[in-house]
Write a structure and sequence with these properties.
The structure is a homodimer. By secondary structure, the first copy, chain A, is α/β, with parallel strands linked by helices. Chain A has two domains: 244 residues, 3-Layer(aba) Sandwich (Aspartate Aminotransferase, domain 2), CATH 3.40.640; 118 residues, Alpha-Beta Complex (Aspartate Aminotransferase, domain 1). Chain A has 14 helices and twelve strands. The longest helix of chain A is centred in the last third of the chain and has 21 residues. Chain A starts with 11 loop residues before the first helix and ends with a helix. The model of chain A has no long low-confidence stretch (mean pLDDT 98).
Chain lengths: 377, 377
């Protein structure tokens, strides 16, 4: 049982669709699948712009989201409050961009005021892009994309480039309505698919910037993906079996509806947090900035590693550990994608049993807390 | 029935392995799969160096094979006698390398003498790499890698970077014995897998060059893949379900043995060519430089498009058309990966039936010619 923030659970009918024999990627049958999945992705991204699909991990996808719109020496403002924010700063540096970081401690959200200050100070409009991680998977913090986006819009020159790897499909991001310029995500997160595909939606302002951008690229050149997408094709051989699965997964998501999907993720986030609190497990991210995809816990008096190991041994439930300096100190429970109420109840009840076995005195019943929150719908 | 040069047929047990539920990519269970597939890939590549696996198409993989070892302004000698050779020249140009091309007409092999001349003339050792497509999928030509590699070795400075996308696993390339510096391939070709993974083997000389190479990279930075591979891990989330399939596919290949695999591909290449000749269909590549993966035909008196359409309509067999200026003039039959004698016989017999329906007078029986060649083993 996968309760990590990606890969996430995959519905059986998606897996079986993926077990079909590959077909030619230039066949009319496959063009039809591309046309259908492209339409589904636009719906999911709430955009009229094409959503481009790359055979790449989330990192490769966000790299594409960054490098297609900038030139060496351009200044970028990068939000860094976790492993992924840090990674985008590294990528920007690797490509010779001038990186100005807005940081916050791991577990704390980025402060929109810091962005306001930096953007207002930039009267010469040197900042060409603001790069922000929406749901920081390493900490379980949800940064305030809506507020930061408004500040970027007020700046007028900078594009906003969003890592929505674990928030797209789990949290309402009205991409066109908010005027998000570039936003990327990955198949193994909110899409109910295995890893192997990344997605990027690009708005008109970003395509204008693309024309002048000179960072070198070929495989990650989004212009070629756009041209192909217009013809229901792909520039390079796509992972056709993942497309078979994506068609089914998007149909399932459309049947559920965006509102229901977001409400479900919110319910599971709140139920998980209620359960953790009842069990006396300190939450790493504050309630107001908690990710809908993953909940991070820094247990006291009982080891995070021991909890993960016993969850695996007793109940075959996979939790994720902490990353970098949080290794061994934190565990993370994913509740993203194809997750139902039963999964949350089951995971918290297993945690309750494991904590008891480890001699941890829980102040209250995790199961009761989860159950109470789930009943509210 | 897929008779195109990729995606290629996939064994049922590989497909079923891929339909298993994803597991955590940082779990010990998955580490074990990485360890096993890494060992299998080394066997298949005939190398002691780690073979790095990337979530990318063949193009992304060869881009990595090029950009990790060079710096802007470096001169590279690129063999171009088809769509893929042309693409590697484009990538080199996009990254600001100084491209010197050795060309041959589509359908003709690259002439090793041209490489000898260019390399011998380079007394200042300005050429940092020779980039060559082994099996040119767009034309069905197999370039003489062994001869060109010897010339590169004689030059002393340049690395050889090989696109073996459709030759690795179908033709004997003793990577370490020949001292190939960098060689890349893709999962949907000789590996009996769907698309989604690319592979690169890198030798010691290339790793030395890597240290000084300054082209920007992050997702395609092979150094990070190498570090992770040493720990049976991956730097970014890998396509775990494709790994499940790869484990099974590599086991099947190891059971068959390298010699048998190469002999099978050679037999199928020769049987296909014998069948085409009997049917009066002109072959695009010469016998001495015919790809073991794909046979290109430029039919006369009957349209290539009509042949492909009728093969699909009557027998549901997918052939590939020509690319770029050969569009509509050529068809290509793949015989790569999980292909057996029956497939070749079946495809040629279907072609015989289709040609007859199109009013083409075949000088002899394609089936008889194929059967005769197959009997020789």
């Amino acid at each position: 049982m996968l309760m990590i923030p990606g890969p996430t659970p995959v519905p059986e009918k998606v897996l079986l669709a993926m077990a079909k024999h590959p077909i030619g990627h230039r066949s009319s049958e496959f063009s039809q699948i591309i046309a259908e999945t492209n339409a589904g992705l636009k719906w999911l991204f709430q955009t009229q712009n094409p959503v481009l699909a790359l055979a790449a991990s989330g990192t490769g996808t966000i790299e594409a989201a960054i490098i297609n719109f900038l030139s060496a020496g351009d200044r970028v403002l990068v939000g860094n409050n976790g492993k992924f924010g840090e990674r985008w700063a590294k990528i920007a540096t690797a490509y010779g961009l001038e990186v100005q970081e807005i940081t916050a401690e791991w577990g704390k959200p980025l402060n929109p005021d810091d962005f306001a200050e930096a953007l207002e100070a930039d009267t010469s409009k040197a900042i060409k892009a603001v790069i922000i991680t929406h749901s920081e998977t390493s900490t379980g913090v949800l940064n305030d994309l809506e507020a930061i986006n408004k500040l970027v819009k007020a700046h007028g020159e900078a594009l906003i480039i969003v890592d929505a790897v674990t928030s797209l499909g789990s949290y309402n991001i009205p991409v066109d309505e908010w005027g998000i310029d570039v936003i990327g995500s990955g198949s193994q997160k909110g899409f109910m698919l295995p890893p192997g595909l990344g997605f990027v939606a690009v708005g008109d302002r970003a395509w204008e910037a693309y024309k002048k951008a000179t960072l070198p690229k070929f495989y990650l050149d989004l212009g070629t993906y756009r041209k192909s997408a217009e013809k229901d094709s792909t520039p390079f051989t796509p992972p056709v079996n993942l497309y078979f699965g994506m068609k089914v997964a998007l149909e399932m998501m459309q049947a559920e509806g965006l509102e229901s999907i977001f409400a479900r993720h919110n319910r599971h986030k709140e139920a998980t947090r209620a359960g953790m609190k009842a069990l006396g497990l300190p939450l790493f991210a504050p309630d107001a900035n908690a990710s809908p995809a993953v909940t991070s816990v820094v247990p006291e008096g009982v080891g995070a590693k021991e909890i993960c190991a016993l969850m695996k041994k007793r109940f075959n439930i996979d939790l994720a550990g902490g990353q970098d300096h949080m290794k061994g100190k934190m565990f993370r429970m994913g509740h993203l994608g194809y997750v139902g109420d039963r999964d949350i109840l089951c995971a918290i009840s297993a945690l309750e049993a494991v904590l008891s076995e480890l001699g941890h005195q829980a102040p209250a019943s995790g199961v009761a807390a989860v159950s109470e929150r789930l009943q509210k719908g």
